[in-house]
């Protein structure tokens, strides 16, 4: 039995619980008020990607049951939340600046951080902006601050390893 064939991943369509091969939508009691909420969890993820309010049913007491259009909308929204989170994380861990240095040469300096709980690391790399060829690369502290001035100083030091 593969992971997606396990009982927790078999398709299911109940009024308060829908599941397909990748996602589970669960209607839960909203702890903030008397209403209901829906949580969307991608299979294999420890926490829901999305938790939001859910509509009350006609009796104004119970939640409106899940249906196909609602499930598809929730999947689309949760996927977008994950995509934006991944983009933000990538932007936080990968920065670059382009400076003019050394005889008016345009040089792109990139900082790439590897967020490891036990041993985080970072690499500073210089590229010729004209042909994207690598000019130099050194390991730096993950706390290194990449700015135009720190990039220029690194280039002007003949790419000596910067102090943190």
Topology of this structure?
Layout: E1 12-14, E2 17-19, E3 23-29, E4 36-42, E5 50-54, H1 68-93, E6 94-101, E7 105-114, E8 121-128, E9 134-140, H2 148-156
Antiparallel strand pairs: 1-2, 2-3, 3-4, 4-5, 6-7, 7-8, 8-9
Protein traits:
single chain; 164 residues; alpha+beta; five-stranded antiparallel β-sheet; four-stranded antiparallel β-sheet; 2 helices; 21% helix
What form results from the Cα inertia axes? elongated
What strand line-up does the widest sheet have? 1-2-3-4-5
Tell me about the largest β-sheet.
5 strands, antiparallel
> Span between N and C termini?
51 Å
**How many structurally independent domains?**
2
Overall average pLDDT: 91
Low-confidence regions: 1-5
Q: What level of helicity do the residues show?
A: 10-25%
The count of strands amounts to: 9
Rg to the nearest angstrom?
24 Å
- Strand residue percentage: 35-45%
Query: Helices and strands: which structural class?
Result: alpha+beta
User: What is the succession of H and E elements?
Assistant: EEEEEHEEEEH
Per DSSP, the total helix count is 2
